[in-house]
Amino acid sequence: MSDLVTLWLRDAEITSSAGASLAHTLYRIPVTIWMTGPLGAGKTTFLQGLGRELGIPQRLLSPTFALEQRYHTRQCGELLHIDLYRLSPNDAQHLVHSSDHHTGIRCIEWADRLQESPAQEGIDITLAERPDDTGRELTVSFRDLALPSFEQISTWREQFFLSRVIIRHCDAVANAAVRLGEELLKRGQIIRLQALRAAAQVHDLLRFVDFHRGAGHIEEEILPERAQKWEEVKALYPGLHHEAAVSRFLIGQGFPELAEIVRVHGLTLADATRVTIEQRLLYYADKRVKIDEVVSLEERLRDFTERYSHLGKLRESDAWYDEARKTERSLFPDGPPF
């Protein structure tokens, strides 16, 4: 399963802003960004926004004559900017192969000059003129990380005897997170909607490792088979809260990037721990859903307080409310869409 998103870029400013937003959805370094589009479509403008957000102090310039330029980013190593425009397909292929072992971010303009379509994992960026001459259309195809299918997620839910309440909650959070992501897409921000949905669908997969009696997490009777399975799973993740336990499980299943999104959705973790847009959206959406109903942060706080006050968690409720409100203001300065 891969992510594919399309954005409308009305001008150069929003094209640069879209490039900047890509910096907040990078999960694996090294990574190659393959760029195609006609002359003047905004490829270099897009990369200038990306470079600025990565902490590159100088303005990225098209390396058409030099063929490549190298820049140092703040945290992602070296950004290698390659331009294939003036090369023959054979020479383009040779230049790209010569940099296959680059350890940072490799951005390749005019990737369609290559003799064959890129087989390597990476991120495909296509910029095209809109037929009505109202800007550009940006298509982003993410081929850099693996995602589980919904069938696989359903199998995990059955495997762990996940309660109906938790399943409803996870699915409601997934729907809310995707709706929020779609709003940001309209504003020119790149979001991995499929990765976001999958992360939300599994974010409470092992919620039972820190269940509390009387907190209303389950509505079914805990049969012996379920109780035994839950105790077995708890023994596999001693001392871990469910966020860390799910993260470790996903890594073991071959989905380390999805694990990163899920790992930091905990109630009291500081905002600085959530560096990608999908991490922040999952955290916020989870705090807006009471069981399977989207509510305000204030109502969610009242619900949390009622369910956990007898466990001495009032300080935690204040902490997560403050963090959720801060995240809300950061994502939606003019107010959330719902």
UniProtKB/TrEMBL annotation:
Its main location: cytoplasm. Signal peptide: none annotated. Keywords: ATP-binding, Cytoplasm, Magnesium, Metal-binding, Nucleotide-binding, tRNA processing. GO terms for biological process: tRNA threonylcarbamoyladenosine modification. Pfam families: TsaE (PF02367). It comes from the Bacteria. One of its GO terms (molecular function) is ATP binding. GO terms for cellular component: cytoplasm. The keyword Metal-binding applies. SUPFAM superfamilies: HD-domain/PDEase-like (SSF109604), P-loop containing nucleoside triphosphate hydrolases (SSF52540). InterPro entries: P-loop_NTPase, T6A_TsaE. It is found in: Cytoplasm. Belongs to the TsaE family. PANTHER family: TRNA THREONYLCARBAMOYLADENOSINE BIOSYNTHESIS PROTEIN TSAE. This is tRNA threonylcarbamoyladenosine biosynthesis protein TsaE. The lineage of its organism: Bacteria, Candidatus Peregrinibacteriota, Candidatus Peribacteria, Candidatus Peribacterales, Candidatus Peribacteraceae.
